[in-house]
C-alpha cells in the first residue's frame, strides 16, 4: 500500500493545476510544498500574468492554449471565483520589423482569431499607447490577465474538496523510483506513491535525473509597476494587456488591478541565478533606467518612476521548450517544469496533461516536443 496514488511536488502554478485535474479522477492525491501555496517568494508572485492566445512561435502551443482557456473557465465555474480577466490583448510593433511579421506568420499557422489595428485606429481606441507612424497592433480578443494567487488557491481548494491533501513546509530532497512505486523523501520523512509529478519550478533542478538536470537553470525575473496619472485610463475595461517590441526596447503589461498602479515590465530580461531562494530583489541601476525609459516612451499616461518592483524565480531549459513528460527511462515519474517564463498562461492545460500522464501512464498524452527524453 502506498501513501497516495499520485504525488505532486510543488503546488505552484503547474502543481496546483495538476492536483486539481488529478482530483477529478482520483481522490488519493498528495501535494508537497516547501513553504505554503502561493507564498510571496514563489514564481506565482506579482499579482498577475498575461494570458495570450497569440505570440511568436504560437503554433505548437496553440492546442494547449485552447485547452487552457477552457480550463480557466472551468476553474472559475467550479470555484466561484474570478481567475481570468478577459480584457483582450494587444501585440504592438513596427509593421515591417522583426516582431509583427513573425507574429502574423505564427497566427496564420495556427488560425488564431485576431485583427490588425493601424496607428489611427489605435489612437482612437487605445490612446494610452504612443505609436510611431509605422507601428501597428494585433488585437487578440481572447487575451486577458490571470490572477495568480487566486488561480493557485482556487485550484487547490477544489482539489481539497475531493480529498486531495497538501503537506506544507515539506521540502522534498529526493525522488526515487523503486520497483512498483516512487519513494519521496523530505529530511528524515519518507512517503510512497504510485506515480509522482515533479513541478518544483526554479527549485526542481536537484530532483531531476542527471541528463535533464544539466539542461535547466534557475532565473531571476524582474517585475515593475508605475502609478498612472489618471487611473481610469488604465482600468481593465479600457486598457487591454499588451506586449510591445519597438523603438529598440520591449515591454509588457496589464491593466490596473488596484485602481492606482499599472504593471509594466521589461520583456525577455530573465537573468541566470545560482540560488532561486536568494534573488537580488532590488533592480540594478541599468534595469531601472531601461524600464523607466520604456514606460516614458510607450505610455505617457504613466508617471515614469517605478513605485513597486520585485523579482521572482523561474526555471529555464537550454532549448527553450518545457519539460513535460515521463523522466527518461521511467514510467512513474512525470516531469512538469522548465516553462521558461511562459508557463502560467498555460498552467491549467499543462497541469491537465501532467495529471493525465500520472493517471493513465500513457506517454502519448503529452506533446512530443516537450518530452524530457530529448536531452538524453
Write the layout of secondary structure elements.
Blueprint: E1 4-9, H1 13-23, E2 29-32, E3 48-51, H2 62-79, E4 84-85, E5 89-94, H3 99-110, E6 115-117, H4 119-125, E7 135-140, E8 144-147, H5 148-161, E9 165-167, E10 174-178, E11 181-186, E12 189-198, H6 210-213, E13 216-228, E14 241-246, E15 249-254, E16 261-266, E17 271-272, H7 285-298, E18 302-317, E19 323-326, E20 333-337, H8 347-360
Parallel strand pairs: 1-2, 1-12, 2-9, 5-14, 12-20
Antiparallel strand pairs: 3-8, 4-8, 5-7, 6-7, 10-11, 11-12, 13-16, 13-17, 13-18, 14-15, 15-16, 19-20
**What is the oligomeric state here?**
single chain
How large a portion of the residues is in β-strands, by DSSP E? 25-35%
State the name of the first-level CATH class of the largest domain: Alpha Beta
Mean pLDDT: 97
Characterize the biggest β-sheet: 9 strands, mixed
Radius of gyration: 21 Å
Output the CATH topology of the largest domain.
Answer: FAD/NAD(P)-binding domain
The class by helix and strand makeup works out as: alpha+beta
Number of strands: 20
CATH superfamily of the largest domain: FAD/NAD(P)-binding domain
Terminal CA distance? 33 Å
The overall number of domains is 2
**N to C succession of SSEs:** EHEEHEEHEHEEHEEEEHEEEEEHEEEH
Which CATH architecture of the largest domain is right? 3-Layer(bba) Sandwich
Q: Kindly state the percentage of residues in helix.
A: 25-40%
Shape: globular
Low-confidence residue ranges: none
Secondary structure tally, helices: 8
